[in-house]
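Recap quiz, item 2
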Amino acid sequence: MRAVGVFLVCAGSLWWSLRACGRRRLVLELLEDLVRAVEYLQRELSLGQRPLPELLEQLSQQGGSAARAVFAHCREGLHREEPFSRIWPLALEQTALDGRQRRALEPLGWLLGRYDATGQGEALSRLHRVLEPMVERCRQDTARQVRLFSILGVTAGGFLSLTLI
Amino acid sequence: MQSYRQAVQVLPLNLRQPALRLSPEQMQRVEEVRLRVGRPPALVLPEGEMCLPGCRVVEREDMERLVEIASRWSVHTVLEQLCRGFLPLEGGHRLGLCGTAVMKGERVHALRDISCANLRVARQRPGVGLPLVPQLRRGKGIYSTLILAPPGAGKTTLLRDLIRVLSDGEEGLRVGVVDERGELAAVCRGQAQLDLGERADVITDCPKSVGIELLLRGMSPQVLAVDEITARRDVCAMADAVGCGVSLLATAHGSGREDLERRSIYREMLEQGLFQRLITIRVCGTQRQFGVEELA
C-alpha cells in the first residue's frame, strides 16, 4: 500500500513538473513561430500583393505547429467577415501567452491589411525588433524554469515519499 | 438578378441582408447601390433613386467594413485603384469611393474617412453593339470609331460589346484592349470576368499610352480599344497606333459633337483625323438610342 502511495506521489510530482515545463516550452514555441510568421509577412508584403486571407491560409497550414491554430482562428474569423482588428486579440487570448506578450502582439490586429505595403512592412519590422528580445528572454526563462520545476518536482516527490514511508 | 446578387456580396452583412430581400424584378433593374454616411442606402433604378427598404442609416463603421470586404482585408493590394477612386470587384462590378484624400505631392496617396460609396452592378448587354457594326465596317477591318456620351449613358457597355462582336466569329479581328481601370474585362485574379470575345488581348492596370505601345509591340492588334480618353499622351499614343495601320475604338465624355470642338484634347483628335466614325448615345427613359455619324 505504501509502495503504491509512494509511486503515485512521485508520478504526481513528475506530472506537475512536466506540465509546468511543457507549458513554458509551448509559450516559447508559439513566440518563435510568431516571430517567423512576422518575418514571412514582411517578405510577402515586400514581394507580392497577396491578400490577407491567403497569407493566413498559408500560415495556418504551413506555419509553425504552435501558431497554426492562431492563424486558423483568424482565417475563420475573416470568413465570417469579422474585422481582423477584432479577431486577432481574441485569437491571442486563446493562447498561453501572458499579458505582456499579448500586448506586444496586439498591434498586428489594426496594422495588417490597413495600410500600404511599405507602412505595414515598417510596422512589422518594429514589431520584430520588440519580439526578438522577448523570445530570447522567454528562452532563458524557460531553460531556468524547466530546471527549477524539475528540481522542485523531484524534491517534492522525494520529500512526500519519505514522509509517507 | 445573379449579377446583382453577386455585386451586393461586398456590402456589410447588415446592409446585404435587406439588399437581398428585394424582389427578383427589382434586383433585375438595380443599376447602382449608393451608400452615404448618415443616410439610408439608396438603390439607383432606371427611373431614379429609391431608399433600400428595411435599412437603417449607413454608419462610418459600415464604410470601413465595406472597404475591408472589397479589398479582402488587404488595402495594400488595391491601394492604387483606391486612390483612383474605385475598386474593381469580382464579376466586373465596381465600387466607387469618396472620402478625404491624403495627398503626397501631386498624387492621391490614400483615401481615409470614406463617406460615400457607389456600387455599380456590372451588366453585360450582349448584342447591344451588333446593329452598329455594319456602319463601322471598312472591308475586313473597321473605321476608327469614337463613342461619345455623358457619364452613365453606357459607353463602356457599348465598347465592351463592340469588342466582343468584332473579335468573335470566323472573321473576327485581333482586338488589343487597354483596360486601364479594369472596367472592360474586369480582370480579377488573372481572369477576365466579362466576355470580350475570342481574339481580344487585354492589358490591365496600365496607363493607356503605355498599354497601347506594349500591345503594338507584342500583340500586333488590328483594332485597339481604349476606354475614356482624358490625357494628351493618350492621343499621342493613339496617333502612333493609327500610323501603324491599326483602327481605334475609344470612348470619351461628352453629350454631342459640339463637345468635341469645345475640349482642346478632343479638337486635337479631330484635327489629326484619328477617327472616322462617331457613335453618340442618347438616354430616353430606360432606353438607349445610338446614332452613328461620319467624322470628316
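Chain A touches chain B at residues 45, 49-53, 78, 81, 83-84, 112-117, 120 (CB under 8 Å).
The helical segments of chain A are 2-47, 52-62, 65-79, 84-93, 99-105, 107-111, 117-164.
End of item.
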